[in-house]
Design brief:
Four copies of one chain form a homotetramer. By secondary structure, the first copy, chain A, is mainly alpha-helical. In chain A, about 65% of the residues lie in helices and about 0% in strands. The first copy, chain A, has 18 helices and no strands. In chain A, helix 4 packs parallel to helix 7. Chains in contact: A-B, A-C, A-D, B-C, B-D, C-D. At the A-B interface, helix 6, helix 11, helix 12 and helix 15 of A face helix 6, helix 11, helix 12 and helix 15 of B.
Chain lengths: ~350, ~350, ~350, ~350
């Protein structure tokens, strides 16, 4: 290097700090709070870039025939970083909320028809994580990319065909060796233990004198659904039905593997895999919470008005918070857990194979 | 005092730290994580007590024929404190989330049929703020107090008849003197400015070539509803209709006063009233967010299972997060705001009356 | 506008998202975590720009012969926004901390000699708030601008001559009209009440049988200092001495005004001024906490090593967290507060002048 | 169970919510904010109880001749929970800060001489983690337990003789098998790599034309200290000197093990141990930050006054934040890290032994 590296040069501050031009200023009278609006959204975009960078690296790790165990620590740490960034995204809503509806109105018209729904990077994040086109809500009958520039649309849609993090994690789960080690009797015992547990839950409802008959009926109906899902847990054909109906997304084997990891997470070889599953749920939850907080803020900011960009506004945001869960199957694992006391003992061979070599 | 005050005595630690007995221990084998479950819920109850203490004081301030302006600063500070406490309540969910579903299962059965829905203090908070019996969701056909002990039920239901913070704030808003000072032409101009603004929004939708016809239809229908509400803003009879249909809760005059405060909040006499309105929304939002985070956690913890206490579980919590907004009318004020540039000038007499005496 | 405004164009994402180039990539092998390092620092710089934008506006409000009471609400809201942004800055440390020392080492050499101490914008923030050249620690014998580019140095040093927010607030405090309204007997009573209070504190120490004689001596010496400060409170000459010795920064009259506002903050005309003083302390505390968290992180990241840029590293950061308080005098007001019960009653004329005109 | 478990009974709310009695009420006029003071401190005590519960469990895990690898996941999760609780403790300071100095003064006298320094549970936490009597600052010449009741003093001091978490972790580190597997040439290469790295750092300082000669001298002196520590890294006698002088606390072998884990943390068998070391630092940092925030708040609340209980107040708190780091040695590991590129390759036998058995 001929020249000393300078902080401002390294961070390209000349570009970065010259990228805020207020539409209200262009229109002739600067509205003070428009700067905040720009800076918050730019900060979001910077962090989206970082999130994409991290997800790409995690995908690289999982996009191998066999995931090197020496890479699991990194994968977990990178996902934990994403979770920390999400906390920041949520905190940023609190900063934006210091802008009042009246202040927003003063420059809102200048922004039309630009809209936060045009953040291509956020759609990239969703697609890379594994949100499918069919999971998305239509924006008033139109595709989620309908308001994008041609370039952005191409970039975002190109990802729809690529394997997502969901896909790669699913394949990794399917490869879990421990499912095959067990002998038949273990799986039979396991199946029975889960069933007993669910039946016990049902008995609680039936015996509860405090429930109205209406309540009881509703909850027993819920159990029928749960029992269907339970049967699907051990029956590939039933699982396929669940998938077809949209109730399950993970493959049969991947779902079983995730349940196995969750139940026997203390085994040395399952400690990092379990953390990974937890973090995937944390990330789902992080984006869901962010969307929800964002919807609350929008509701307050614009009331019943339509959003800039003519979008349906706060209501849309609230609904989409519900719909955008990618790893929902992992949440549902809890339905099939059993207390430690009821877990059938693992076959010794499996236990052994999950320990470290240095431990004689 | 005969004796020196001692930290532990002052805080009654002997009682406080002796109030954790694990049901799992009673049943013969201690489950480590039950302690966390107890302590988190006890911390919630301590903070609920504090929140009630603060709300009572704010109610005391507003429960006067005329609210002393010298008390407004206190009211605002106390509500801000409630908001800080709510952040803590939300943060506590993150601590509880360090307990995994498997850990919870290990002692969950011992808790039956106790349930978080039996927190009498939380219902007291809701009732004191102004949640009405009719706003509540039924717990499987039964009243929200159906699972309470007799004592708790009496305590909670007794509050249903008392004026809530909502009621007291409504009366205070109705007494706002500035609404009467204005001459007729100001109110006419104001009415027109709001209308023009809404019409402009409608024109934007109609002219937008990017909207599908379906989108356009939906959004124009939304406008009809908004225009109805607009008319109600200046027509007591129409407002009464809105109230009857459940679309508005605040009285006509209180709603007008809140809009006036929001629009002219810079006037010295409106600065504190505006902060107060903002904080009431913050508190609504705080409890909504807390319920939502709690629902997310429950979903993860119990999956499709029913809650301890046989409650409908995560789904119930999620729905109730939506329903429990008390000051929703304040959110809807945004619909009728107009940019500062379009605000009709206030009559000089009103402006003058809102200044301090020391300012000649 | 010929063309529709597009989200990406409005936010200048082309520039913003093209401003991350890794030195490690230039050197031939990309170190994954360098991206995080860049993005965190860019996010800091974006927020610094925003903070400067807000401080400039608050300065504009206070830079008037008389501050319009109708602007006080805005000033308070803008400072509260700065406090929210500071929470974000602190939270960002947690994100940076997901980078481990080992990861940092992998690209640390490439950054030499660039350093976070070269953030010109942060020095601008400090100067605008009112940090004086003489308050700053030397960076190894050299000025705080010694490592800046010529341009940055000029920008930062130019501000040293301009009135800071500290200066403007001081002048505003000095103009407080209420100090002059009171008659002599009020000030006498006030002076006496403060003195009695301090004497009572001293008596507590002297009578405390639990203190060792060493403890007692230390604390009584502390009281001598406090009593000196107390005398300065009512004696301009003694106050001038305090200023000369660096123990006070605010002028005599400004300090008295701040104490008056703090004690009688419930009066309508003092509610917003009191919030303002509180927020100035919050902002001091926010930057102090941020520097401290940053120092903790640096300690963990580099141990005893020197910082990039050859700076003295973690130790320097920790010390400077202590030294950079601008509104320290406001913290010290607490020393001279008296319980409400002991406050002398305000002369009725003053009380009256601090009320709103609308209140008869 | 004869009777249904009830929420309020389970949580012993009758005790818990009856444990707040205000001294100001006893003295005849209730001061509103005293309730907050009590509740915040009670919440602290509840959480301290929980932290002790968790630390005891982690100690139980480490208090074995060999720590079962199947327990490492639990240990890590429990420590992470402690970190989440610490965030809550820090957040609680923000709630307490909503009480202003004037409000505090109104009931402060009633509390004398009770003091937060009398929290026995917090001292228990410190002792269990491993803070030694000699690490503590004297409270004005007296022991940290001098203000305790007899019972509390006995409880706290009893722990001084027991093995702390520090002690148990130290022993566990000393047992690390991997240090012995390596042949001589690996350790030689390792030693050389660290040395080269440090020399390179020194060269940077010497060659830096921007440093003043004073700066250069200071930094080079720092290097002498660092080189001494480096030598101690491989020389038990020198390490013993470091320990004697208070610069190191961990034993020679434990310090080496911690460095090894930090450098080769990607190896499967080191992933959880590395997380554990990180969390021990997080916990240190959490308490340090809490003490610091607490000191900042006290400064603001009482100014130069003495604390309730006649303690030296804010200054004491600030100093003790610095002094109370328990796992400071882990922070200092960073001094001896080397970039991955410079790490000598691990002997194949060690690498192999750190993998899982199932991997061929």
């Amino acid at each position: 290097m001929d020249q000393d590296l300078y902080y401002g040069t390294y961070l390209q501050l000349e570009k970065l700090l010259d990228a805020q031009s207020l539409e209200s200023t262009r229109a002739g009278h600067t509205v003070h709070d428009e700067m905040l609006f720009i800076v918050v959204h730019q900060a979001y975009e910077l962090w989206f870039k970082q999130v994409i960078w991290e997800i790409d690296e995690v995908k690289r790790i999982f996009d191998q025939r066999v995931v090197d165990e020496a890479d699991m620590g990194s994968a977990v740490s990178l996902l934990r970083r994403v979770v920390e960034i999400q906390k920041l995204l949520i905190q940023q809503v609190s900063v934006l909320e210091t802008m009042t509806p009246l202040d927003f109105l003063d420059f809102r018209d200048y922004l039309f028809p630009a809209s936060g729904f045009q953040s291509a990077q956020f759609r990239v994040v969703e697609n890379k994580l594994g949100l499918r086109a069919e999971d998305r809500m239509l924006l008033g009958g139109a595709s989620y990319t309908s308001r994008f520039s041609d370039q952005d649309r191409r970039d975002v849609e190109a990802l729809e065909g690529e394997p997502s993090l969901f896909d790669l994690v699913e394949r990794w789960l399917e490869r879990t060796p421990f499912l095959d080690h067990g002998d038949f009797s273990f799986w039979e015992a396991f199946q029975l233990a889960v069933k007993n547990r669910l039946e016990a839950d049902r008995a609680v409802v039936e015996a509860n004198p405090k429930l109205t008959s209406e309540e009881k009926a509703t909850q027993l109906k819920e159990f029928e659904i749960t029992m269907d899902q339970y049967e699907a847990l051990f029956d590939p054909a039933k699982h396929a039905e669940q998938q077809a109906s949209g109730r399950r997304r993970l493959s049969h084997r991947a779902f079983q593997a995730a349940l196995f990891i969750t139940l026997y997470r203390d085994q040395p070889a399952l400690q990092e895999p379990y953390r990974l599953l937890e973090l995937l749920m944390d990330i789902d939850e992080g984006f869901t919470s962010w969307r929800y907080r964002h919807a609350q803020m929008a509701l307050r900011m614009i009331g019943r008005r339509i959003g800039t960009g003519g979008s349906a506004g706060a209501k849309y945001l609230e609904k989409s918070a519900e719909r955008s869960r990618i790893f929902g199957d992992l949440y549902n694992l809890s339905t099939f857990l059993i207390p430690r006391a009821d877990r059938p003992p693992l076959p010794p061979g499996i236990v052994e194979s999950m320990r470290f070599k240095y431990e004689e």
